[in-house]
Inverse folding.
């Protein structure tokens, strides 16, 4: 018996010391499919430790609260990239190790949060718009203001995200969603207080089943979720309001003290391949940033206006920027007050 | 050294009173000191520091975090959380007390007890979502009620305070049952017979014999339910539609969203201290401590 | 009256198991997102068997839970036995400290531990998880075993010594068998607490030791996938089988 135990311990230790190449990936849940990860492991021989988070704030806190480098590849949203660059948390990217970088759509190479991909490689993007269930709603809400109307009492699903919902109120008032003026934000708060009677629930997760099972008849969701819901319930419609809408981008980056930078580059370069990007686009149902990959997508997805709106619609979208610490604190304080008004 | 020798070393040879060193006790005490009290001490210290966006906390020392608690929404949120926890504890108690009694009287005690714990080995998150699917607009509950013609149109059971309380009761039920059961098990039912011999009626027997003797189990059960009920955040988020902010959400917000670790630390300290105070007022030492 | 009692028990168990039944039904439901019945299908079980990530997380959680349960129960048991023989004053102080630990919300403890591990340089991973899990299981274990140990008559132990038994023998053959139900409950409780812990692990888990609750927490972002339901169904069936076996064994042994 003792010999058996000793043998087991030895074999465990041996397994660890074979020193397989490893990469620690920390990403949003539901954005990098398992299949892609397995393919990468097979093709490169690098083992992937994949963990996920459910908010940029958790990612940021984990990176700050841990002394030595823990993660090699992270997937923050665009405005968090801005913030992390300001605080020196990311490594500048060595483009010579990213041979597939040219596959990216030029809109995401020359973007306004990290021009020329100095620190980040955009992977997925999306927009926040209005969904409604045409069998339950008489007059489709075509602008943000329509959400405030009384027939929608206790019907709305809103994203549980302070910035997204404040952006809507700001846009309703005619301001930019990235507006940081305290007075404007206060006005937006007053508007949102009036919206409360119409709100049935807040959620940023499990959105598809809420839409498909008709627990909410209208509201504010991301286009990817509406697209997937539409596949199982044809009554779900999605549109981009005329006042404008918010665009989000999630981009891959390498934190400063990454323990395995070489493997990190290998992973990112793999995700930049056209075929891999296409797989991500099909499996996850979000819009991809990879132009070469997009060309490979089936027509039904490539030309779907929900996921890839036409150019004139895209002009009305604005990317989220980092509004600065004080504005974020202000937004969050108002958001908390808002929830207390229920 | 053989296994029994090792155990003997830790306990058998050293646990006679006043004679030798209680090693296991010291190990436990040291372990808890390092891995439990030290972290809490760090939180206490952090609560007096100031917020810093680069390093989470920084000097100077300040009492601001505590004074902010008095002015902010903390009192409001605390009251709501206490109300929710109260309802949950009450509901659990009402369900668990008769349940434990019936369990004691039954012949398959341990089996029935384990049957309560088994659901807990399936993730409570997944079960909460399963509860969601039952209470949905098009869920089983509504379907059943419609079929039995109790209602005409489906009810909006979800995304309400009721749904949250139901979810909390569901999740915390075993924590009420186990202490009450293990305490009731030691109750000598002959006491009831003796009481009846002396002329007590059923009500008297219950209130003056049974209830006081099972009180320690009740208090422990309430303790184990009340606290998580105040600070669990994912159940109000999922079943309540994230429409309200309870203590759990507040503390989480302070640490993760506002990134004000000192403030979050202060809130945590105040919460813990107020619970301890509450306990010291209402809790009589249970019988086992008195002996 | 008897019928009423049976109905009440039945109602409670129904209430407890209804979500589990739903879970099982969804694991064979032929749809990905909808929560309405769309036809029978075993494809989620197939996807589950192919998803090695989820299985790895499952086994990690089981291993972590077993380790934490055994270590904390052993330590807790021995501590309780020693406390049994110490003076009342020391005991009351220690119990008060334990109460303090139970009172601390998971959330606060998780964050405090994160601070502590940062401060002390202990890496986040299996080690940090094991330490934290043992730490939060200990008070519960001690409480459970204590509630039983105090019903015992210490004279049983001393009379055994008087009759010539060694201390170890008195311990293992007199005290332990009497305490066995409490030890078993403590083990079960500790394992359950560790296996299902989301909040504390959320803060202190490292990249190389994925555990099930965290994987689930992140997967539900896209909605509970039926594979999760399949996994939970399997967990449930395994535990039921174990219980039935244990019950049969109890009947058989003298």
């Amino acid at each position: 018996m003792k010999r058996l135990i000793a043998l087991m311990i030895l074999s465990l230790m041996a397994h660890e010391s074979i020193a397989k190449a490893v990469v620690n990936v920390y990403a949003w849940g539901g954005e990098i499919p398992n299949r892609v990860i397995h393919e990468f492991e097979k093709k490169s021989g690098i083992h992937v430790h994949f963990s996920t988070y459910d908010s940029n704030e958790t990612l940021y806190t984990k990176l700050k609260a841990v002394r030595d480098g823990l993660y090699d590849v992270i997937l923050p949203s665009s405005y968090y990239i801005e913030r992390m660059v300001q605080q020196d948390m990311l490594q500048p990217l060595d483009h010579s190790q990213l041979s597939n970088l040219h596959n990216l759509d030029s809109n995401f190479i020359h973007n306004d949060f990290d021009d020329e991909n100095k620190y980040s490689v955009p992977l997925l993007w999306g927009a926040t718009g209005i969904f409604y269930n045409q069998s339950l709603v008489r007059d489709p809400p075509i602008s943000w203001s329509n959400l405030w109307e009384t027939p929608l009492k206790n019907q709305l699903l809103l994203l549980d995200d302070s910035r997204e919902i404040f952006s809507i109120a700001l846009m309703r008032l005619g301001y930019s969603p990235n507006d940081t003026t305290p007075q404007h934000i206060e006005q937006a708060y007053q508007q949102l207080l009036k919206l409360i009677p119409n709100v049935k629930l807040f959620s940023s997760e499990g959105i598809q089943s809420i839409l498909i099972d008709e627990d909410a008849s209208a509201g504010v969701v991301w286009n990817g979720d509406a697209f997937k819901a539409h596949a199982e319930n044809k009554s779900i419609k999605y549109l981009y309001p005329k006042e404008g809408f918010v665009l989000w981008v999630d981009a891959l980056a390498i934190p400063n003290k990454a323990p395995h930078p070489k493997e990190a580059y290998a992973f990112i370069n793999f995700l930049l391949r056209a075929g891999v990007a296409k797989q991500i686009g099909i499996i996850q149902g979000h819009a991809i940033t990879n132009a070469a990959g997009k060309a490979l997508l089936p027509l039904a997805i490539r030309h779907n206006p929900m996921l890839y709106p036409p150019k004139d619609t895209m002009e009305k979208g604005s990317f989220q920027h980092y509004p600065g610490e004080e504005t974020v604190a202000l937004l969050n304080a108002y958001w908390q007050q808002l929830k207390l008004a229920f | 050294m053989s296994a029994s020798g090792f155990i003997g070393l830790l306990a058998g040879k050293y646990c006679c009173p006043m004679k030798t060193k209680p090693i296991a006790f010291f190990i436990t005490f040291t372990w808890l000191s390092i891995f439990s009290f030290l972290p809490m001490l760090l939180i206490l210290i952090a609560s007096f520091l100031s917020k810093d966006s680069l390093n989470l906390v920084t000097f100077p020392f300040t009492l601001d975090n505590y004074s902010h608690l008095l002015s902010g929404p903390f009192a409001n949120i605390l009251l709501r959380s206490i109300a929710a926890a109260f309802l949950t504890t009450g509901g659990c108690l009402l369900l668990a007390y008769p349940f434990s009694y019936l369990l004691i009287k039954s012949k398959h005690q341990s089996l029935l007890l384990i049957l309560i714990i088994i659901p807990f080995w399936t993730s409570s998150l997944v079960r909460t979502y399963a509860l969601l699917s039952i209470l949905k607009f098009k869920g089983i509950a509504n379907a059943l009620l419609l079929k039995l013609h109790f209602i005409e149109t489906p009810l909006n059971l979800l995304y309400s305070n009721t749904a949250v309380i139901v979810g909390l009761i569901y999740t915390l039920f075993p924590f009420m049952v186990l202490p009450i059961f293990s305490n009731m098990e030691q109750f000598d039912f002959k006491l009831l017979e003796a009481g009846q011999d002396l002329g007590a009626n059923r009500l008297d027997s219950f209130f003056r014999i049974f209830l006081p003797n099972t009180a320690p189990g009740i208090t422990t059960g309430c303790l184990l339910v009340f606290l998580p009920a105040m600070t669990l955040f994912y159940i109000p988020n999922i079943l309540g539609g994230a429409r309200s902010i309870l203590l759990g959400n507040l503390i989480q917000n302070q640490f993760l969203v506002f990134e004000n670790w000192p403030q979050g630390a202060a809130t945590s300290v105040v919460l813990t201290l107020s619970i301890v105070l509450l306990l010291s007022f209402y809790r009589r030492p249970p019988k086992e401590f008195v002996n | 009256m008897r019928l009423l009692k049976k109905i009440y028990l039945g109602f409670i168990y129904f209430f407890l198991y209804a979500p589990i039944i739903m879970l099982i039904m969804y694991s064979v439901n032929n749809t990905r997102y909808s929560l309405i019945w769309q036809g029978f299908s075993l494809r989620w079980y197939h996807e589950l068997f192919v998803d090695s990530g989820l299985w790895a997380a499952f086994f990690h959680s089981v291993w972590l839970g077993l380790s934490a349960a055994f270590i904390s129960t052993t330590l807790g048991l021995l501590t309780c036995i020693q406390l049994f023989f110490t003076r009342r004053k020391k005991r009351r102080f220690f119990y008060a400290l334990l109460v303090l630990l139970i009172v601390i919300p998971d959330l606060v403890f998780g964050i405090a531990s994160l601070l502590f591990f940062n401060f002390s340089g202990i890496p986040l991973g299996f080690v940090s998880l094991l330490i934290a899990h043992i730490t939060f299981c200990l008070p519960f274990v001690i409480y459970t075993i204590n509630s039983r140990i105090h019903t015992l008559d210490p004279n049983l132990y001393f009379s055994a010594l008087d009759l010539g038994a060694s201390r170890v023998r008195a311990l293992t053959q007199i005290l332990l068998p009497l305490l066995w139900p409490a030890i078993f409950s403590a083990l079960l409780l500790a394992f359950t607490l560790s296996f299902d812990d989301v909040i504390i692990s959320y803060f202190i888990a490292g990249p190389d030791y994925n555990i099930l609750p965290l994987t689930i927490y992140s997967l539900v972002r896209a909605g509970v996938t039926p594979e999760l339901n399949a996994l939970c169904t399997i967990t449930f069936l395994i535990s039921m089988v174990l219980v039935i076996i244990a019950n049969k064994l109890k009947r058989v042994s003298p």
The two ends of chain B are 37 Å apart (CA to CA). The mean pLDDT of chain B is 80. The longest strand of chain B covers residues 50-52.
